[in-house]
Structure formats: structure tokens, C-alpha cells
Amino acid sequence: MNGQEVAFLILAVIGGLAGLLVVTSRNVVHAALYLVVALASVAGVYLLLAAPFVAFVQVIIYVGAIVVLLLFGIMLTRAPVGRRVLDNTLRARVGAFVVGAGLFTMLTVFLAARSARRASPPRPPPPPPPLANRCSGTTCCPSRRSACCCWPP
């Protein structure tokens, strides 16, 4: 493992954990700050890929503009924050579990079917049809043009 691979691994772990914290955080402001970390790790990956312009655009547009806009929107609207807002009823939790289990089952079935198709050896192509002599209906050989009556002289 060289240094670039180690740096990518570190950025991937940081970005993955930050992304997980974005969707599991109970505080909206904390979720927005975790989003900053996740987007900054994506910009770091762009730098590793030798794309500094894309990394710069990532930081300026996403981290600089969208997250700040999100934070201003949260603070100016005085959105309710806390555990009471995020508590779901039992019915909503059961529905989310059913949808998640259905999606997991569907993806598992599709991926298993695809891997089963890839595991079987490919079928050989069918043999080409013989060149039929249009004049007499007999099979002719392209290397012996004189034997066929339809070949141009």
C-alpha cells in the first residue's frame, strides 16, 4: 500500500462515518456540520485523483454555499429541534422496516440472479449457415469460385 492508497482509505472512512452521522444525528445543526465533513472528504478524494479544480468547486459550491444556506434556513425558520420532533410512532417504524426489508430482498434476488448468469459459461455462437448456391441449391465453397454457378466470373 502506498501513501495515496492510505490517504484514500482514511478519507473514505472519515467520509463514510460522517455520512452515517448525517442521517443518524438527532440534531439538525449537527447533521449539517457532519455534512460539511463528508463533503470535505469528497473534495480530498478529488485532490487525490489529481483534480484540484473539481475539489475547489466541491468546497466552494457544496461546503461553502449549500451547507451555509442550510444552516441559515434552520436558524432563521426556528425549526423545532430535539428528540420530541424525531420520535416516530410504532406504525411509522413498522412501515420503514417493511420497506427496508422489501428493498433488501429485491436487491439480494437481483444480485443473486445476475451472479448466477455470470457464473455459467457463455454459450458458443451458432455455426454460420453454409453458403448455398442460388442456382442449383447445392452447397458451394467460397475458395472454389468456379464450382458455383452464381459467382461472378
Structural notes for this entry:
With 153 residues, the protein is an all-alpha fold. It has a domain at 3-87: Up-down Bundle (Four Helix Bundle (Hemerythrin (Met), subunit A)), CATH 1.20.120.1200. It has helices spanning 3-24, 28-48, 52-77, 83-86, 90-119. The chain starts with a helix and ends in a 34-residue tail after the last helix. The mean pLDDT is 81.
Write a compact overview of the structure shown.
The protein is 67% helix and 0% strand.
Just name the CATH architecture of one domain.
Up-down Bundle
Question: Unreliable stretches, pLDDT < 50, 5 or more residues?
Answer: none
Indicate the radius of gyration in whole angstroms: 31 Å
CATH-defined fold name of one domain: Four Helix Bundle (Hemerythrin (Met), subunit A)
Residues in helices, as a percent range: 55-70%
CATH class of one domain: Mainly Alpha
- Cα end-to-end separation: 67 Å
Please tell me the overall pLDDT. Answer: 81
Biggest beta sheet summary: none
List keywords for this structure.
single chain, 153 residues, mainly alpha, Four Helix Bundle (Hemerythrin (Met), subunit A), 67% helix, flat
